UniProtKB/TrEMBL annotation, chain A:
A Pfam family the protein falls into: ABC_tran
A biological process from GO: response to antibiotic
Membrane disposition: Peripheral membrane protein
Record domain ABC transporter: where: 5-240
Residue spans crossing the bilayer: none
MF GO annotations: ATP binding; ATP hydrolysis activity
Record key words, sorted: Antibiotic resistance, ATP-binding, Nucleotide-binding, Transport
Gene Ontology CC terms: plasma membrane
Protein name: ABC transporter ATP-binding protein
Record's keyword annotation contains rRNA-binding: no
Organism: Streptomyces malaysiense
Subcellular location: Cell membrane
Length: 261, 257
């Protein structure tokens, strides 16, 4: 399978008043076309920072990476054309209507006015937002707002979709819907999905392959099954035990809430 | 943004961003009018105190006060523009725009042109109120004055957005803006002309760029257009705007640190 994302030694150090912070220290990774990759790690592991570098929002302080054949450093415009991004906070303005947000985003991708309106309608149908087009985004539920964020990120039919903790804060029903949506995007459009999460059950259920990050570096990677076998001792091991073996730390205690790292 | 981005795309994107934020302003009519309240209060309750005083400049007290109030409006209003970008950053709106191919310069220009539109609109209201209070000034001079208000708001809003992208929390931003705005207002002679000041204060005020704008605007309000004040005022206003927009765009391009 062809690599659609490849990174070598990707690093980012932030200069802060309290001194330099090495948020990401030399991440190597490869993501194959049409894969759902789970980027798993505890809070502060460097997931968001990695994503912001791969989407050209933040300049790496070390290493190189390419997305869909476009180099981050030399062809950021190519990277932007090939990728969609949904930040953990989302990206919709609460004071603006759903239709206006979708049309504006399409215009940012340089669609003509008529094409932008048509594309907004298409995206609304595909993501089940048609009934809310005339609502302000502040009046959407968490799950609906997430779908709007994803619709905006899919405007230009990107090859790669980056989702930063897409289900954090969603109720169980909306989480399940979102998992289905991610699978559908991959199955119907062949979209590669790179998603970060700190929920172990989400990583287990959704991702074809996992990259576990901790302290800004890749601690382990492989399919959920292979990781369980290698670190947890058997295929029946829980991902929680596996994670513990990889990072040397217990994930947060499990309740009936999703298991968070 | 590639450096050689076609101008057509820049115009397209700027119009898009401008339209988005102007519609936003029009949705909150109250805020649109409320911004003009402080200078209006000065006009109503401070202006009449000056009518009989010798102010050391040509023209009536209204021709001296109104240019200062218009610049005060732009100064305070535009300096606080960065608050909105702090909110938008927290909502993810800024990054959502920055992952698209949209021109970085347009992300800034669209916003500051909206601000200039809003403040010129408020300036028009203020001038109408001033005329009712007794201001008499040549129309050309008043129009030149609006040009200065527009340039000042473009400059200060650009810097304010840049600062808002850098500091990221309102708690840091507020004190920073207060530290800039009050001295700027007092040292540039917006309320009373610096011709009344002792020498040291007059000299000090020449280091504040707005001093040149208000002097030029006061000349315009008495119909004197070919003066040294006017030349310096135009040079400072245009130069400052170019510097500020360049600095602002740089931050929009590389933001995220
Ligand atoms: N803009 C920034 N300035 C300074 N430090 C940052 C910045 N962004 C992230 N960090 C730090 O980098 C580390 C990794 O953060 P992040 O990538 O957000 O982790 P994650 O998304 O895995 O929770 C954290 O220690 C965080 O505090
Ligand atoms: Mg994060």
């Amino acid at each position: 399978m062809a690599a659609v994302i490849s990174a070598a030694g990707l690093a980012r150090t932030f200069q802060t008043k309290a001194g330099p912070v090495d948020a990401v220290r030399g991440v190597d990774l490869t993501v194959h076309e049409g894969e759902i990759l789970g980027f798993l790690g505890p809070n502060g592991a460097g997931k968001t920072t990695t994503l912001r570098m791969l989407t050209t929002l933040l300049k790496p302080t070390g290493g190189t990476a390419a997305v869909a054949g476009h180099d981050l450093a030399t062809d950021p415009a190519g990277v932007r054309r090939a990728s969609g991004y949904v930040a953990q906070s989302g990206g919709a303005d609460p004071g603006i209507g759903v239709r206006e947000e979708l049309v504006t985003q399409a215009r940012f991708y340089r669609l003509s006015k008529a094409d932008a309106v048509a594309r907004a309608g298409e995206l609304a149908r595909e993501l089940d937002l048609t009934d809310f087009l005339d609502r302000r985004t502040a009046a959407l539920s968490g799950g609906q707002r997430r779908r709007l964020d994803i619709a905006m990120a899919l405007t230009h039919r990107p090859k790669v979709l980056f989702l930063d903790e897409p289900t954090t804060g969603l109720d169980p029903g909306s989480r399940a819907d979102l998992w289905d949506l991610v699978r559908r995007l991959r199955d119907e459009h062949g979209t590669t999905v790179f998603l970060t999460t700190h929920y172990l059950d989400e990583a287990d259920a959704l991702a074809d392959r996992l990259v576990i990050v901790d302290g800004g570096t890749v601690a382990a990677e492989g399919t959920p099954g292979a990781l369980k076998l290698r670190y947890g001792g058997s295929l029946d091991a829980t991902l929680q035990d596996t994670f513990l073996a990889v990072t040397g730390r217990a994930p947060a205690p499990a309740g009936d809430a999703p298991v968070a790292v | 943004m590639t450096p050689q981005e076609p101008t057509g795309m820049l115009l397209h994107d700027t119009a898009l961003v401008y339209g988005r934020y102007l519609r936003q302003s029009l949705r909150s009519r109250f805020a649109l009018l409320f911004g003009a309240l402080t200078p209006l209060l000065y006009l109503l309750f401070f202006g009449p105190l000056l009518t009989g005083l010798p102010l050391g400049r040509a023209g009536s007290s209204w021709q001296i006060l109104v240019p200062g109030l218009l610049l005060q409006l732009g100064l305070f209003g535009a300096l606080f523009a960065g608050f909105t970008i702090i909110m938008e950053s927290a909502q993810g709106v800024v990054e959502r725009m920055r992952v698209t191919p949209v021109s970085r310069l347009a992300l800034l220009l669209g916003r500051v042109l909206r601000d200039a539109t809003v403040f010129v609109f408020q300036a028009v209201l203020l001038v109408l109120a001033a005329v009712a209070m007794g201001l008499r000034a040549p129309l050309a001079g008043i129009l030149v004055g609006f040009g200065f208000v527009a340039l000042l708001t473009i400059s200060l809003a650009s810097l304010s957005y840049a600062a808002g992208m850098k500091v990221r929390t309102p708690q840091e931003f507020g004190p920073l803006i207060n530290a800039v705005s009050m001295p700027s207002m007092l040292l540039s002679g917006l309320m009373l002309p610096m011709s009344l000041a002792p020498a040291w204060l007059n000299v000090l005020s020449h280091f504040v760029p707005f001093r040149y704008l208000v002097d030029a605007m006061r000349d315009a309000y008495v119909g004197h257009y070919a003066t040294a004040h006017m030349l310096y005022g135009v040079l400072v206003a245009v130069g400052f705007a170019m510097l500020a927009v360049t600095a602002g765009t740089r931050v929009f391009r590389t933001a995220g640190a």
